[in-house]
Design a protein that fits this description.
The chain is mainly β. It has one helix and 45 strands.
Length: about 500
Amino acid sequence: PDSRFIGFLVGGKVMKIEAAGGPPQTLCEVPGDLIGGSWNRDGVIIFGTAIGGLFRVSQAGGVAARLTTPDERHGELGHLRPWFLPDGRHFLYVSHTRNPEAAGIYLATLDGQERKRLVATHQAGAYAPPAAGSQNGHLLFLREGTLMALPLDARRFEPAGEPFPVAEQVGSFLALEFFSVSANGVLAYRNGAAARGSQLVWFDRQGKSLGVFGPPGDYRSGPTLSPDGTRVAVGQLDTGTAGNRQVWVLDVARGVPTRFTFDSVEDQFPAWSPNGTRLVFASNRGPGFGIYQKDFSGSGKEELLLQSGLPVTPNDWSPDGRYLLYSAPGPTGRTELWVLPAAGGTPHDGKPVPYLQGPYNEQQGQFSPDGRWIAYASDETGSYQVYVQSFPSGAGKFRVSTAGGAQPRWRRDGKEIFYIGADGRLTAVDVKTEPRFEAGAPQALFDSKIVAGFLAATFHYDVAADGKRFLVDTVATGSAASAPKPITVIINWQAAAKR
């Protein structure tokens, strides 16, 4: 608030740095993904977590204290994007929930008084203080691309009227708002649709485009090629079910998409069985989270393989079909790799066992074609790198990447590992798995231009069996995502709204 410091969140840490320059200072550590923060004039910093509630810490640093707890009865997962109101005691935040009916922007206080929902929305909001001569401030929030303003009593922060539209076609992405409002009545917002507008494209090893694949979409996980290379599974945003993600399958020969899941919840992160007859995927259908499998023919019912209280992400199936590798948050909030043993070829009779646990994030596990090794991404060095470790013992660890890497994939014969470098380039490494593991020098192939960036929690490319072609989720040329987004500024927007 005094403009001397900039606060920021990175790698599970709340940090600050002097605006005039200097080394960053760690204020506290909190496990998990930190999403949004706010700083009041009394030196209190609050911040949100994707899986968990809000936390607070002093601007001088210390141990983070829990401020709010998600209501599991209403499907809440986390509290995001807090925003202090002018009195420094009240604050706003957005509820991250499995239940669309409970989503909204809530009002709460530092002293823990009962919270209340102010508006129903999936997006975060911002507070604009009263204009000169007015008794009311305004809560600005998004509703289906329209920026709305709800009058709020400036002393009690109670609704003092009905919400009204301020601007249309305002961009957003998940719980992030693409608008900002100042204390002196200036509003700025970025236009553009929420969809990322991605396109699956085939590339050769030199980065030459071999043609687009399938229609443009808003792909959120995948693409994942079937073992025989004839089909591709993806997770795609479904605008018909309140922005939830569903699993789709595309025929490689024709690029024709077919919907595979049909729920009004989140179904994503598909992974093929070794024989290509089934797909496993993650879902948040209640209660909690789970991994499900379904026969590709569509004739069979969806079968629950694993129930969990925390989000789980299927990574890969072992070549012999005996193990399902998945990632999930551990007790510390860091992502861990787990194995679900199979019985009779389907992983539903065994109990999950940990493969990699520790103080670091370890994710994106992939079995080697011979099933003796697992490639994965870990941030144990402070930045993500690709490693290979033996299976099932979890010993004999080798680092594959040298300058950052994530999203590892094996060539079908096990002689190469591919990954996305920290610079976004798709990189290849020659490897040997017999009689012991050996890795050569990384060779950058081409700029992948993937939509999600190399640190995505899931994969946004796959490689053909021969290692000569790559199917990459790229920004669609000419889409809303690739077009420049104009920024509109309105001076004294409250007066303009009254007119």
